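REQUEST FORM: STRUCTURE PREDICTION
Request ID: SP-0412
Submitted by: Lab K.M.
Chain count: 1
Length (residues): 748
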Amino acid sequence: MTPEPQFAGLEKGASDSDSSIDELEIVLRPQDPPQFPVLRPRDQLQSPTPLQQESQLSQSPVMRPQDLSQSPSPHSFTDSDILEEPELGLEDLAVQQESKPVNNVTNPMIVVSNRLPFVLKRNNQGALERTSSAGGLVTAVAPVVIECSGVWIGWTGLADYKQEDRIPESKPDDCSPTAGLKSCQAKPVIVPDESTFDKYYNGCCNGTFWPLFHSMPDRTVFDLQTWRAYEVVNELFARSTLEAVKSVIQDNKTGKTAVPIVWLHDYHLMLAANTIRDSVIDEGYKIRMGFFLHIPFPPWDIMRIFPWCDEVLQGMLGCDLVGFHIEDYCLNFLDCCQRCLGCRVDKNKMLVEHCGRTVQVKALPIGIPYARFTQLALDAPRVFPESDVKVVLGVDRLDYTKGLLNRLKAFERLLVKYPKWVEKVILLQVAVPSRTDVKEYQELKEDIDKLVGCINGHFSTPSWSPIRYIYGCVRQDQLAAYYRDSVVGLITPLRDGMNLVAKEFVACQQDNDPGVLILSPFAGSGLIMQEALQVNPYEMENVADTLNRALEMPLDERQLRMFQLKKREKKMDVDAWVQAFLHTMGVIYDNKDETPHEEQYLDKIEVKDFDISLGPLVDNCTKLGVILDFDGTLSFLARTPSLAIIPPETKRVLERLSNYHDCHVAVISGRNLENLQEKVGVEGITYGGNHGLEILHPDGTRFNHPMPPGYKERLEKLEEELRERCTVNGAWVEPKGLLVAWHYRNTD
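STATUS: Completed
RESULT:
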């Protein structure tokens, strides 16, 4: 997937709405594709085998509009379908498959992505025109949004889109999945400053998150201005989402129990959740939020390089569910939450505790519209003329994560090491242009052009060239024919979130004479599609040997491997992915178990947990900082603050710790500084009164937070008002100098 703009939101600390409070402290705060020569065809398409017949019977019917050539739409080959431009630049064949039932989803769903699920363009008169976008994600999710009267939020793709512009309705002859999505269900996000959007999208999303999350920190650019732009645009997306939440709640006809579901997508929107959550809590609304990352999530040692790593993690943790393609990414995320934020995590249950909330983390491997590609492969005419030459196929967006240079060198090594394949095999590499205005991508294209020319110049004969290189767009029906008629699918990215090209190759294979899939383990699909031949794209010798093995593989082994691959991908298609998300969010239930959604929680902390987690850290550290609360920690909770005392044995431990030169102890409390110092009575430690507004260091230096003019007068007035109105039924008010506390622990 290309690092296109996709989803947004602004970071804020997640609210702790469920914590148990027995004391309230009040603080006043300041404010047409190229043809190529003769190639070897695969066997003619024959009558469907029993397996094909079974597959066809089990799939939904396929519909195609009359004019296939006028429906360009994004087509996903890696990780996501909601793109600002076609992921592979492919002209989409607008094929509509009937969606699988979604078990009567009644909860209104708000989908937030960087782009709207259709393409908006202006005609010669300046009026907006709407064309379909039939990518896999749109095909699966749009019917759900339509069914539950939900909303889809995203950028229009037009820099000149104004507030007064109106999104047109779909055309009467539109058969795409978004045809039923009314204009009122599509909410555009308007970024008024084009420079801000450029910094957000090209700067932060493409220049920072894309290489960093693909574990390529040497290509990553860190810039404060692009990060600020990312925050601003995320804020705009979050505010649009809040408006949509209010709208669907007001218009909801299914009753008060139908909680809106907000589904955020991808690395463009990693800060939105906290802004949304904080605001809906203030407004008194109840929602459930899910986030899905369509690219890899890096390990801790890569993620911590990002200067604002904590903000990103906290933003994602604002959701109730955080989804990734595979379990490895889930574990990376949990590890980052634990090591960067200090969160409690359960790696068995895949749970994170953050700000008093428990967030579920789950592997939800995305699929493809399997039935559509199967039908395309059955219908598409042959594109390879008759020949004895075998075709090895590579299909990628031109990006440094795809390993195209390594792949070309490995194919060259095949011809050197196994000369029997000279004039017997070709590599057909489709490279779709991407970010052509970026120097790094221009240089990559030049390197590929030179290498292709070098290999062809060395091995070509008058009737044969080893590499057929297509730099441009390919129609989806033609692509399906490429998949079907190739003997090997060579998918070797250096790093990829999922890579759906591998799945599409499998869906288009014939049962009677399938090809062989070669796959990199560094793609998410490589860990799922185990029947594929695994290769290390960094090791050219390994790839060359595996290519030779694939070209020589007998029919029975090819059929066995491909049968298992097809069986899995048919079951785990994109509709199943959406169903899994909805089920996890508690929107739909299994027919066998119609139980309501139940929250999961981490086990309560016990003494042994401190020994397990803190013991090794204390043993291995050179300096130790101990920060303690007073009431309820050093002292048992007393009926009134004046009755609280510190046990003698606890005081002795503090005195011993204070004598270690490499141990620093601080006691922080809501009490005023003098009262706290009197209650603890240990020298050589730091005291923080009024929750840190007053600090006394061991050397006697003191810090007092500056108060705005009139603060004390307003605080006294507030204290008086609380005494008059709130000191009933056992509740009472305690002045704390710079704060005032209202105690209601003993109320009836």
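NOTES: DSSP finds 20 helices and 27 strands in the chain.
Reviewed by: T.R.
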